[in-house]
Amino acid sequence: MNKTVQQERAPQTAVSVTELERRLAEIFRAHGKQLYLVGGSVRAVLLGQPHEDTDMATDATPEEIKRLAQLAHPDGIYTVGEKFGTIGLIFGTHRIEITTFRSEWYTERSRKPDVRFGVSLEEDLSRRDFTINAIAQDPLTGELFDPFGGVEDLRAGIIRAVGNPDERFREDPLRLLRAIRFAVQLGFRIEPRTREAIKLNAAQLATISRERIRAEFEKILLAPKPSIGIRMLVDLGLMQYIIPEILLLRTKAPEGWHHKDIYEHTLGVLDNTPPDLIIRWAALLHDIAKPQTMTLSPDGEVQFLGHEFLGEKMARDILRRLKADSRTIERVAHLVRIHLRANAYTSEWTDGAVRRLMREAGEDLEALFALSRADITSHNPPRVQAAYARLDELRRRTEELEAQASVAKLSSPLDGHDLMRIFGRGPGPWIGRVKDYLLGLVLDGVLAPDDRERAEQLAREFLAREEGQAASGEQAGQADAAHPQRKEEQQP
Q1: N or C: which end of the chain has fewer CB within 10 A?
Q2: Which has the closest alpha carbon to 311: 293, 331, 295?
């Protein structure tokens, strides 16, 4: 490696290297092959961020990687990315992906990678997307190789394309989204030339598969402040190739119609939600149908009748178009349809009305509460606090009803038919007494609801005690009748 590619400002020992990575590097070097830490692994440690997996690059071919990796005795090897030059290794809970140096990645306007393997680290780094991902480290010496100033850009908080940004984006248009994803995840800004190239190449996104687009978009949704990413996607012309319906949210109400900005409200709701993918999708799409349902009522109020039902359909269409899995589609569409329900709560609701909401929300009840709380975006503090208080009251009532319902589902492990069969007796009040006794033990946690064997034993002991007490009482009564003076002597 020619050290001229190393920037003097790059710290020499900024990245910690594990013994496992050193061992792999020693094996590769012993067989005449290079091996370096690269990309996200180096970036994450330089930023002081945790990372679960390790990325490495080598001049070895995929077949050579597999052969040499075996010498390190991994717990497993996976070859899903072999045609792209990547071999994965599993060491306990740690994963290492080793990729052959690349020279060319994509054929212009092709949806599929056209990978060509290279022979040098410099060439490999020159084809990477952004300078902050084009840093490598020698695991044996700790030396950093930073030919494009990635360390400096990390320090400055800048996303900058490697070399010519137009070329980088044409090689793989998914990088248009990756630039925004890194910016919003790391809180960085995109430098002007790279930003302008994103605008100019936005239409290239149409050549990328919907699955790859959705994967990057969902990482943007899960960022600390996703609204920043959504704004950039809209402002840089990318959103029309992802979810063009989002652009319609900027539709303004006609002159004289007064209503809050749907687009700004949506972004506010999105930022208010926890980083849960289902909830974030629902937040983004909960008002997606408002522009199509906007009308003016006779009394001059702007209304969006049925937007939750049309929104459910639109959410399904959008997520299907992006090739989301069926469970995600169903849950998000469900939340869009019911997103108004919890915030419509008043203290006049009967327990039956609360139960119906619980039944309608099903497994998404907690997600509904999170979305409903995020949907409170009024600038009137007393109104906001009152809305929060109603939601808190509704939550308390659902918890109380759920607890009651859970208790109500508990029962004696043995029913009346079981008891009659066990004791050889007919129906009578005794059955109720035994079942009540067993249920009490279940409620106290002494008896498991499904422990029929122990329940039978306890039932027998209970009946024996009860009958023994009855017999003792009967004998005492007979004795008192025979000696009435004895009973009088016992009176206080």
Answers
A1: C
A2: 293
d(C-alpha 107, C-alpha 392), whole Å: 55
173 alpha carbon, distance to own chain's centre: 26
User: Above 90 in pLDDT, residue 56?
Assistant: yes
Q: Estimate the share of the chain in helix, then strand, then coil, as percent rounded to the nearest 5.
A: 55, 10, 35
Alpha carbon distances (Å) from 211 to 222, 321, 376: 17, 9, 32
Please state, in angstroms and rounded to a whole number, the distance separating the CA atoms of residues 174 and 205. 7
> What strand order describes the sheet that includes 94-100?
76-78, 86-91, 94-100, 53-58, 35-38, 136-137, 144-145
Residues 6+ apart with CB under 8 A from 458: 437, 438, 441, 447
Question: Nearest 10 degrees: CA dihedral of 178, 184, 190, 194?
Answer: 20
> Structure pTM?
0.78
Query: What are the structure tokens assigned to 264, written together?
Result: 């700004």
The answer on pLDDT for 133 being more than 80 is: yes
Amino acid at 114: D
347-361, 382-396, 403-417: segment of lowest average pLDDT:
403-417
